[in-house]
Design brief:
Layout: H1 8-14, E1 19-24, E2 29-35, E3 49-56, E4 58-63, E5 66-71, E6 75-78, E7 84-88, E8 94-101, E9 110-111, H2 114-118
Antiparallel strand pairs: 1-2, 1-9, 2-8, 3-6, 3-8, 4-5, 4-7
Amino acid sequence: MHGFIQNIKQRSELNTDFRRVLYTAKYSQLVLMLLKPGQETGFDTHMQDQFFRLEKGMGHVIMGGVTTEIYSGFGILVPAGANHNIINTGQIDMQLYIIYSPPNHLDGSVYHTSLQASAVSKHFDGQTTE
């Protein structure tokens, strides 16, 4: 396979893992994320640009001290160095996909819970999907 060609909306909505790396290229990475009601990513700052697409659910994004309500269909671009947090304020799971540029996580990694994900100290090691 060269590249990633799949129904990302369907993959996002079927995802049951906190974080699942779907595809890692040399300069970008595609990741699924699920936040349960009341769950949040926690304030974080990356040295990568990130694009979030909210496929299902609702909540808030806090970036640069500004809180914005988000819901299905929203896109969020977090520039490198921006402190941000995404919070599921709804009654159903929030399902998103994220594009990191450059990659941030180990290719193929799957974390069923945020606790598992937070315990990992290894980040992208240069290994791509293909």
